[in-house]
Amino acid sequence: MYPLLTGLSVIEASSFVASPTCGLYLAQMGAEVIRVDQIGGGPDFHRWPITPEGNSLYWENLNRSKRSLALDLGHAEGRELLQALVRATGQFVTNFPAKGFLAHDTLAQGRPDLITIRVMCWADGSPALDYTVNNAVGYPMMTGDGPDPVNHVLPGWDLLTGAYAAFALLAALRHRDATGAGGEVRLPLSDVAIGTVANLGSLAEVTTTGADRPRLGNTVFGLFGRDFLTRDGVRTMIVVVTHRQWANLIAALGLGEAIAAIETARGVGFATDDGLRYTHRDALFPVFEAAIGARDHADLSAAFDAGGIVHSAYRSMHDAVADPALVANNPIFGAATNPSGAVYPAAGAFATLPGIHREAPRPAPRNGEHSERVLSERLGLASGTIAHLIDSGIVGTAQ
Fold it and tell me: Would the pTM count as exceeding 0.85?
């Protein structure tokens, strides 16, 4: 954690990945993020992966450093408390529907400078998930090398949307500071996905060529890059992104004469052209397969590191967790007492700010852990009023 956003308070009413990610990133930079959930937890409160006892490891990591207020949102008084809290705070992040009791126009009554960041699925409000949006923009039809579409397991559009939502909130705050105006920012997952496709040139690619990109398996489009198998059975990915790396790769494998022969036979030069290396991969790959397959991984790894060549052996996530460079010696990780009771490395802010002290990661709250404090500090409710709300089942507290 870093104290860059100290003094900023944000109300979050959300579930699943994208919207909670926005709140997480804001909290990791020092904002006070108050997550409001249904008493007992929202629809993502028990989402997998879970501990043997049924506690969600997903939930307690996406909600680190936040406060928790539990309300009965099925009751009018519970909904009114959330509305009052949003108005009192002035910043709101949600993926609730654009219509209903959390509509921006309704919330902004009496608080015209309110900023609402609304994560959506489709722009028209219809439902979707990362995995269905990804299908809609075409990536599974480019993944793998067989006839069937291949889904990925990383919810990339959710994560990108959450990060963009945090950026959008800070941009809206800057605009409000300059003009005094609030407003609603709507951020559909589908627009983040298709906009990213456009930003990467892929939309232009299919428009100008009239064809979809062929399936390439593990081959990198437009570059020299693919997985290769070493003599001792280690599968490693090698990608060349600079001309110096290409020269160093050839030198490390002793392939100068073999590459020169291909260049002569085909009338091309690979030294300074990524596209030609990709286009003529049918001739290049067998040469590299033979050279890499004749050496052990440790030997190749040392030679590649010395030449600044980008490479990485494939490994399991269990292997990655055991890598000291990634986890044990990585300053983004620390210890935290988790609500589940499970002990594992806890991630803090991904960014490193030299010269600014990095605070240790904080745990996620228990559902309703901060209900009394939030209602007292943010709405000025008296202890007797809060006690009555708790007794009547409108407000929940952690047990």
Answer: yes
